[in-house]
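Worked problem 6 (solution included).
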Amino acid sequence: MTLRIQHSRGGVELDVRRIPVLLVLVPVVVLLSACGQAHKPGVRAGIVEIASIAAESALMADDLARGRSKITFIRVHGAELSAQAQHEAEKLNDDPVAPSVKSPIETAITLASDIGGAIDEMRVSPQDRQQAREDEAKLHDWALKARKLAETL
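Solution. The predicted structure is:
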């Protein structure tokens, strides 16, 4: 069956049997074109998580610098925080990304790596209060940088 539509500039013929196929294919093509691309909300959430890890680690470093924390806690909780930072960096690195978020993702991955490194320094030498003070300042700064980066998305 063919549907003929007349217009002032000419006619258009449309095979009615093809309408159901078009109604199915168009949404599928639209959905597939967006698959596999990390977009701003997901990237933003990952960067906010990195900022949170840095802020929590800064608090831990402050406690360590003041002698208010046990070595076992620093090592165990520090391992958890370091693993979380690494996991967020891996997620950001592994997902295919839209070109508009590539640069912020690279910055966030670097921040996550730096944060994990500072946490690991505390875990290795939890008795070094001076190192803990330095790590606290760096972690606080990285938390602020990550928050600002997330706000740009």
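Discussion: The chain has two domains: 2-33, 40-151.
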